[in-house]
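Fold these two proteins, one after the other.
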Amino acid sequence: ALLIRGASDNLRCPNLGESDPTGEGGSAQDWAGRTIFSGAPTMVRLLHVALAGALLFGGADACTNLLVSPGASADKSTIYAYNADSGSLYGSIGLYPATSHPQNATREIWDWDDSVFLGVIPEATETFNVVGNANEHGMVMGETTFGGLPELDSHGTGGIMDYGDLIWIALQRTKRCVDAIKLIDALVQEHGYASDGESFSCVDGNEAWLMELIGKGKFEKGAVWVAQKVPDGAILAHANQARTTTFDQNDPDNVMFSPDVVNFARKIGRYPADASDADFDFSAAYDPVTFSGARHGEARVWDIYRLLLGKTDEAAGKEFEEKYLDYVRGYDLTSGRMPLFLHPPEGSAKFSLTVADAMSLMGTRLEGTWFDNRGIDRPDVGAGSGHSAYRWRPLIWKDTKGDEFVNERTVATQQTSWNFVSASRPWLPPAIRAIQWWAPDDSATSLRVPVYGGITRVPYHFADSVGQLPGAAVSPKDAPKADALNPSWDSAFWIWNLVSNLCYGERAQLVTEALREEMGPLQRDLLDKSVAFEAKVVQEYELAIDESNAAKKKSIAEKATAFCEHEGETAFYKWRHVFMKLFALTRDGFTISKGTTPQCVPGGTKVGCTHRLLPDVAETGYDAGWRDRMASVGEGADRKKAPGGSSCGDECGRLEEHKRLRMNKRRKTKWEAIQSS
C-alpha cells in the first residue's frame, strides 16, 4: 500500500537550455519515516468570469485535511497536512511580507474561488510575515469546503469576507488559533460572509483546532459556527463534509461557538423549537450527509483513520474499516457517523506520527479496500492496462441509458493544485517555528520542499507574480512566467505535473513504482538537511548573546530564506531530471533500461562493445490479465486472433519467427565478434 511504501469539487480550499547543477537523482529505496527536529463588478467583468468559469472551473475540486495534536506526534509538534485540490488553480507559494501600515489604510478583498473583487476593509496597523499557509509565529491554516444547505450559500449576497481571505488575514494578524477563530467571527459579523460552508483547520504549535462555519445566506448578515480543539493525543481528518455533530456547550477551553448557532437553525426551520440545545447536531442541521458526502468525502477520512488505527493495532484497524464501510459507501447513511476525533485503541500505544507518516497518509488512494480502483483484485476497465488508481472526472457520470455511476475520490488525486505537510514547533525560534513540506500537484507523486513560515523570499521556481490573491504576488523578476494555462520549464507547478502525469494511464503501476524509488531517497535527504539546519540555527541563536533580539530574528529569517532557496532550487532541477528519466523509461510503450553491452571507448578495444549506446528495449506493453481481456469475445476479438498453426509446416514456422524478430530489428541469437582489431 502507498501508506507503507511511499512516501476532489470547485476549489474551496484554494528553460530547458539551462544547466542542471545537481546531476543524477537518488537510488532505489522504500520510504522511511523520519522525526523532524526535537463595490459591484461590471457586466464586462462578469462576462469574463463566466467565460473563465466555463473553461477553468468545469472540473471538480475538493480538499483533504489531517490535524495531529502534540500528544499524537513523535516530537510533540502539531502537524497539519493539507491537499488543496483544484484543476483550475496554479499551485504556487504566496508571500505577504511583515508590514507596518499607515493609519486608515485599507485592504482589498478578492474572492479566492472566482477571483473577483468583493470590496475593501480596514487594514491592521501591523501584519505578520506569511509564506504559503504559515506565518512567522508558527501558526498554520487551511480548509476544506463542505458547502452545506444551498439556501445558506452567502456568495453574491453582498458579504465581503470570503474564506480564502479569512485564512490569510488571520495568519497576518494572529499568533494563536483561538485568536484566529475570534478574528474570523468578528470579520464575518462586521463585513458579511461571501462563501458557503467551510471547515477551517488551524495549528499553532501548542494546539490544533477545527472551526466549521456556514453563512446565513439571504436570511441575515454573518455566519454561524462551532470550533473544537483536537484533544491531546488524538488526530482529526476532514474532507468536504461537515464533521461537527453534537458538541459540549459548557467547555470554553476546548469548544467555542457563535451564540446563535442553535437558534438560527430553529429560525430557518432546521431544528425544532422545543428540542434541547444540548442535543443540537451542527452537521445534521447545516450539512446533512448525502451519498456524495459519504462516498466522496467521508470515505477519505475513513481511509486515513483505518490505516492509522491499523498501524497501531491491526485488529482495531480492521474492525473500524468494517464497522463504517456501508456508511462511507453511501449505502447506509443512518448507521452512525464516524468519531470526529481518532484516539489510539484502548490498551494500545499512543499515536506517534512523524511528518513522513503524515506524508504517506496524505498519499493514500484506497488501496486494498472495497473501493480499490486499480483492477488488481477484481476486474475494473477504468483502471486501464496500467492499473491506475485514478479516474478522470466527473465523479458521478451517466451511461448512454442515463443510469448514474460513481468514480471513487481518493485522498491523493490528480487535480491537486498544491499540498503540504506542516509541523509547528513552539520550542524553535519564530522564523523556523513552522515548516511546510510543500509541493505542487498530486500528494502521492510529489517531492516536497522545505518552506519556513518566517522566510522573506519565495524560492524562484515556486513563486508567482500574480498570486493566489493579489497581495501574495511577488515581483515578475522573482518568478517564472507561467500560470494555470501557460507552461514554463522554469515553473515547479508544471514540472511536478509532468512527473505526476506519467503515473496515470497505461503505464501507471510501472511508473509509480519507479517514481517511489526516485522520490524516497530525495525526500529523506531533504528531511535530514532540515534537521541539520535547524540544529545549527538553534546553536547559533543560543550563542549569539551579543545580538539584540530583533537582530537575531532577522538573521535567522535570512538564513532560513537562503536555506529554502537553495534546497528549492536543487530539488527543482533534480525533479526535472526525474521527469526525463521516467519519460525515457516508458517511451513509446516500451520499458527501456540500460543495456548489458557497454559502449566502445575511443582508442580502446572494439570487441564486446558497441559504437553507440544500445539500451534494453523490452516489449512489456500489457500484462497477462489485460491481454486476456483483449482476447475475450467482443470488441473485435475475432479479427485480432492470429492463425493457430501453419499449413506449410516447420518451414513456415521458422520463417514466421524470423520475420517477427527482424520486423523489430532483433535476432534469435546474439551477434558475436569473429575477430578483434
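Now the second one:
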Amino acid sequence: NSFCTLLEPHRSMGNSTSSSVSFSSGMAAIRAGAVPLDDHTTWALVFGADPTLAEIYAIADNHTLRMLRRCSPANLAVLVYKCVSVLHDATSLKDGEAVKVGDLPMLRTALRLLARLVPMILEELPPLPEDAEPVTEHPYAHEFAQRLLDEGRRCDRQDTCFPPLEEGRTLGETLVDVVVASGSTAGFCVGSSQIQKFSCTADHPNVDAGRLWAVGVGNITAAPLHTDAQTHRNRLALLRCLVSLMAGQTYRPNVLVRDAVRARLLSINTPRIATLVSSLLGTVSSYVAAGVAPYSSHWVGEAEDCVHRAAEVLVVALDAGDFHPPRDAAATRVMNTAAEQEDEASRGPSAARDATAAAGAEDNETDDRDDPEASAARDDAPAHMAAPNTEGDVVTADAASEAASNDEGAASTGSSPAAAAPSGPFRPDVSKHAFWGVIAAMTRREAHSVMTGIVRLMENYVAAGNTYFPGSQRLLPGHTFYFALFWLLVEKAPNLARAVLSDKALTRRALTALLSFGMQGTLVASKHPNLQLCMSVLATLSTYRTFATALNHPFNEWVPFKYESFTGSYADFLLICLHTVALKRQPWVVGVHHMVFAVLNNVAPYVTSICSVSAVKLVNLLQYMSSETYLRERPLHPRLLPKLVIALASFVQYQSVGSTSLIYALVRNRAAVKMLVDSAHNADLGLPRDYFRDPHVFTLHCTAQAADEELTMMLKDEPDADVVDLLRRVTLVGKIPVPHPLRVLTFSPSPASDAWRTSWLWSLVFTHNFPHIVDASRVRIFNVAVRGPAQPQEQRK
C-alpha cells in the first residue's frame, strides 16, 4: 500500500532533460483523457520525474491549464487530488518513521505542482481570446474551485466525489494541512534522525521542538541542526508552495474559495502550523551571511535561497493579520515578567508619562500601546480631546487639521471620516492568527535571538557596499524582505520592539542598517519605499526612551552613502540624516516629513551631547523653515515648524550642558531666531493661533539673548578664550523658562497606509517569483503606436 512503490522504475532518472521528457509525457496523458487514480504508469511519469519549478511552468503553462479546466475539469481535479493524496500519505507516517530517500522526488513534485495549480484553480476563468477557436465549455468550469476544494467532487459528468482523505475535512482544508505538515515530516524537511516523539516547551505547547529546521523559537538551547543540500531543496519547494497558496490576489480572485484557503493557512487550528512558524523564524534568524573563514564571505552556501523564501512567507503572512497579546495564563506570565515591567517604567520620564495628550491623528501624544485598555480608550476618543498634564495645563491635538495636512502623497496617519477611508488589506477571519500567536508567546530570550538574527541580515546591506575584501559580503537576494520583516515585527509586536531596545548595541546596529537602507530613497524615486520603511520604524522606536539613550555613544561606523564628516555620537548621525531628509523637496520625500520631525521631537530630551556639525544644521533648518516662502509652499509646512521648535527647546532645557554647540549656533545665527519670532507674529502664515506666545518660541529667543549677553561680558574679561569653553560655564537657570512637559508623538497607520504596504510587499513577492507566480501573459509594459502614411493609427501592446 505504500505510495513509494510507484516510483521503483523511475528512481534512476538523473538529468533535467530526461525528467522534463518524463513529466511532459505524463501531462500529455492527463490532457488526452481521464487518468484513473490507480494508473501507476501515468502517475509514475508525473511524480517520478522530479522536474524543476521552471520546467513545470514551461510544460503546464497558463493556456494548457485553462483549457484543461475549461474543457476537461475532471482531469485537472484528479491531478490536484493525486498531489494532495501523495503528501497526505507522506505526512501520515507514524512516530519513528521517516520518508525514504527514493520517495523525495515524488513529494517535491507534488509541492511544485500545487504551487503551479492552486493559483490557476482559484482564479475566475477569463474569457477566450477573440482569435481563439471556439470550444465547448464544461458546465463546471467556472465553479471548479468551489466544487473541488469545498465539496470534493470530481467535476465529471456523473458529478461523483473523491474518497475523503480526512474525515470531517474538505479537500481544500486537507490540501493546506498536508502542505503545512510536510514542513515537519522526518526525512523530508527535517533530518531523518529527528523522529522522536512530540516534545515541546512550556511556553510553546504546540511547537514540536524535535522537528524544527533551526535553533530558535521553541528550541533555543538545543544544538544546531545540520541539513544537507537535498533537505534545502525540499524546504524550498515547500516555501514556494506556501507563497502560491497565499498569492490569491495574483489573478482575479474567487473570493469565496480564496479567503477559505488563506484563512486555513493562517489559522492556529491548522495542525503543525506552530512548528512551521517556529522553523521559519529560526531559519531566518540563525543564518549568517558571512563565510566561516576570511575571504569566504562571497560563498555562503546553499541555504541562502531557503532563507530568502522563508522571509517571503513570514512577511506575507504577518502582513495579513495583527498582533494580539496572549490571553492564556502561561503566555501572560511570560509577557509580564519583571524585566519587561522595568522596561515599561523606563520608556519615558515622569513628565512624559503624566502628560496625557490627544488621541488620534498624525501625532498621538501618548504612549499606551502596551496597555490594551488604554489603547482602546484612546481609539474610542473623539477627534478633539484634551487632558491635564503635570502643570495643570491642557495639551490638545487637532486631529482633523492633522489629517487634512497629509495631502502631499504620504500615507495618512490621521483619523478621517469612515465613508472616505479606503478599504484596508485583506484580513482573514480566523479565531487566532497562527504566526502572530507564536510571536506573542515568545520568551524574552527568544525575542532577542530572533531580532538579533534579523538585524544581522539587515547589516548585510551595509557590508555589501564595502568593496574591500576583508569584511565584505555579497548582497543577499531579496534583502528588502529582511527590512520589511523587521518593520512588521517592530511596528506590530511590542515585545519584539522591547527586545531590540533592551540591547543598546543591537539598537545602534539596527539604526545604522535602517539609515543606510532608507537614505537611498532620498536619491531615487523608485526607492521611496526604503525611506518610508526607515522612517516608519524610527517613528515607532523613538517613542521608547531607551532608543534615544542608546544613541549617546561615539559613532565610528562606515555607511554606504555620503554625509558630512563629523565627530560625535549616533545621535549626531541620526540628526544629520534627518536634516538631509527634511531639506528634500521631492514629492516622495515630502510624504515622510511629519515622521522626521516626530523622531526628532522624541529623541531630543535624551541626547546628552550635540556636535557642532549637527547643531549648525539644526539652526540652519530652523531659519529655512521659518521663512515665509517655506511656510506658504505647502499646507503641511506650518504644522512642521512647531515640532522643530519643540525639539530645539528640548535640547536646550533638558540637556543644556551637552547642547553648548547648539546654543552657540543660535547665538551666531540670531537671524534664524528673529525670523522665527517674526513668523510667529504673522497670522497669515497658517501657524497655530497665538503661536508667538508659545513657550518654546520664547525659550529659543531667551536662550539666544541670555547666552549672547553672558558671552559679551565674559569675553571682556577673557578676550582670548574659546567661545565654546566659555559657554560651558554659562548657566541659563532663571533666564529661560522652566522645562516644558515632554510629549511623545506616535503614529496610527490609516487603512490607506496599510493598503499601500500590502501592495508594495506583494510587488516584491511578484518580482522575486516572476514568472512563477505572476501571469506573464497579462503583463503590459508599454504601448507601441505604429503610424503609416496611408494607414490609420494602430496600437500594439
